[in-house]
Amino acid sequence: xxxxxxxxxxxxxxxxxxxxxxxxxxxxxxxxxxxxxxxxxxxxxxxxxxxxxxxxxxxxxxxxxxxxxxxxxxxxxxxxxxxxxxxxxxxxxxxxxxxxxxxxxxxxxxxxxxxxxxxxxxxxxxxxxxxxxxxxxxxxxxxxxxxxxxxxxxxxxxxxxxxxxxxxxxxxxxxxxxxxxxxxxxxxxxxxxxxxxxxxxxxxxxxxxxxxxxxxxxxxxxxxxxxxxxxxxxxxxxxxxxxxxxxxxxxxxxxxxxxxxxxxxxxxxxxxxxxxxxxxxxxxxxxxxxxxxxxxxxxxxxxxxxxxxxxxxxxxxxxxxxxxxxxxxxxxxxxxxxxxxxxxxxxxxxxxxxxxxxxxxxxxxxxxxxx
Length: 371
Ligand code: F6R
Ligand code: MG
Ligand code: MG
What we know:
about 375 residues; alpha+beta; 4-stranded antiparallel beta sheet; about 25% helix; binds fructose -6-phosphate
């Protein structure tokens, strides 16, 4: 059997109202366009989601990653949705389409991409995670815990198929370099890097040689596009997505979801310039309201059947996550009380909107040297 590729490609092409959520009209336009592509045989299957104000396309096909036809399909779908967003005067219509014309590949053009090609197993659970109002580094903690933390993933200790650990592909997104690191052997060095989550991000996770799964086929992939770097100015946070495979030699679905029971602090939220808790929510709460947030994550669970998507199951639609949501609300309240003070507001170098240079410029003649 040929390998299957799952592509999760997303863009913010207009919000309703402001940056809260995606209008039904845009979801419908995207579904129509992807249905045509499915009818023509280009893709095997698809699902469309909204994560806050981001339009999310999950597509399956046999064309591999970075395929021009698939990326063009995503781009055209975003352009069609943008035309509707412009007609409805939705907020920031077309904001993530940073280029006027498609040229081969959506990477570096604004949309975020998580895709992986692999040999579909006898039973293949895949989870699509979609976040809004945060950045790619928000995935560092949960992905590390799934694949390297024995206090999260019991299988690392008690399942011989996981016991050897995994290989992490980590990107330095400032220097545009990557490194492959092995867990558990290099666990402390991995943490030394990925704890600096605005610079070092986990891009992929691979199984090790000699295990149940091919060592060259990823088991998790995260979008790492940095809009700020692409556009050279603030054009919205990067709002990352990830695909994670589960079970039979990989973390179980429950081990993949478990890290999200802790609403860890991530950067983003209002004006892409605040730290706040990441709240796991069901699809119907995928809208960012309080202070344009707090940052949110949804999880869609599927089984693959020769590339067909069976599902989705709305995985955070579970009272087992109520406590986490309550905790996230308490943390949101605590952080909000800091107003414009760090560490609620990001440190200056990470701020995406800032009037500080202008304030400094105005005050420059009034500053005196201190003896
Ligand atoms: C954060 C985000 C929003 C906007 C805020 C101001 O990623 O998208 O918090 O930054 O609503 O938006 P503008 O500058 O468009 O008025
Ligand atoms: Mg927006
Ligand atoms: Mg967004």
